Amino acid sequence: MKNKLLLIILDGVPYRNFRRLFGNLEGWVDSGDARVWTQRAVLPSISAACYASIHTGVAPAEHGCTGNGNVFRLKHKDVFAQTRAAGGVTGAVAHSFWSQFFNRHPFDYVRDIEYDEPDSDTINHGRFHTMTGYGLVNQMTPSDVDLFGSLTNLALRFGLDYGMLHTCTLDSMGHRFFHDCQEMDHACAVMDEMLAPFIPKWRAMGYEVIVTADHGQDERGHHGGRGALQQETALYYFGDAEGPSEDTVIDQLQLAPTILGRLGAPIADTMQAKSFLK
């Protein structure tokens, strides 16, 4: 493949929290090692609908996932499938919704929690968690450093061309505490510190890296509707491609064709948005 890329999705981080609280990411912007833009989520700006749109490049009104209670095996071509069609190796460390959307539905707690399937048409190497029992008191989220370590393990062992990671920690914290509070400031700082050592490792391994979120959250910890706090997040890019001016707002539907373009994989006809990197 032309390039290798890792997509890191930190669920539920509004733009202002990225820019205010992620000191390591912002430091790399200052040094010129990263670029940052605003990214605007699809509507509804709810997690599952956004996951589906990020990888298919089509809106929820087209792919049909209208929310977290409506998860199924998607029919549209996606980033994993297009990468595989080009001969690339794919991996995912993520919530089980991703496995259901892009590999198999329903999710089997034994079969699908961890799999290595070199001949899969979508995800070759999957490490998933379900957050079963999730609530405000018990978030049921794995430690993020464990997830970052798992993705790095897959990349080293299997030579991933495309790998994605998704963690719900900050989304869950935001629903519990809302975003303008000491607990959320600390949670964002911890995430930034856990993530930071892995980015130089991934770059040294030859990967371009995108760090972003699926959506934001408003003052009451809500998302799903319209509005800057709910829809807008940041997107950080580590790599050598040329991007748009810093004031550009990236449509979430641009992610799929952009990733495939960087990998050198075919962009599906259904992915109509334009790549933002070249």
Automatic annotation (TrEMBL):
Pfam families: Phosphodiest (PF01663). GO terms for molecular function: hydrolase activity. InterPro entries: Alkaline_phosphatase_core_sf (IPR017850), Phosphodiest/P_Trfase (IPR002591). This is Metalloenzyme domain-containing protein. It comes from marine sediment metagenome.
